[in-house]
Amino acid sequence: KNQHVTTMKKACLVVVLAAVVGNAAADEVVLATFGSASSLTWQEMNDPVMGGESTGNFSLTANATGKFQGVVKNVSFLGAPGFCQVETTSLFSTNISSFLDGGIALTIAATATPTYGGFKFAFSAVGAPRHHGGHEATGSYKTSFNASSQRIFLPFASFSSDWSDYTGDCDTLDPDGYQHVCCDDDHTDVCPDARRLAQVTGYSIWAEGTEGTFDLEVTQIAAALN
After folding, report:
1. Cα–Cα distance list, 73 to 48, 59, 118, 145, 151 (Å)
2. Is the pLDDT confidence value at 31 over 90?
3. Cα 187–chain centre separation
């Protein structure tokens, strides 16, 4: 009888541990890693395509990080700082709709420039609205972040599809008089929703709208609940 009770207790413990591990695993799903094991390809682009003078580059390091560095300068005809950008070029579609109440978690190396104020992260998705004045083939959702910690959580509620080409921000009044809007209860149409998150097709990291030198090393991009 004692042996039977012990066996039952062990079985219950296994079930509990399995549930804990399962829940922990479901709290975060890795979307991108860097280095030789990376399944995604990336391409760097700067504002000279729009007449700017910003310079940047992106490389995979021996430490399995993606190193994004450069200098953002003013675009003379815009009268505003330009951008440097690195984006995925791989063809894929990822379903992260189960993380709608969560967001994107970036893991970065300690060598980043925490004082640079123009870092942004964006993701494209099938059916995402294109922002005002946008030139992209498909729409995307974007938000700002600073590199002050090694794990950065970006709630999906902070992303907006209505970001400005002049700043990358969602609260900008463009020179043509158009007022961009951020995701909130009054502007849910610019917020990511489950339908869009079910077909995510690309990621991009930006240094945009702020002059200065930047240096960012990304270890991992994940969808997370917190």
Report:
1. 10, 21, 12, 19, 28
2. yes
3. 21
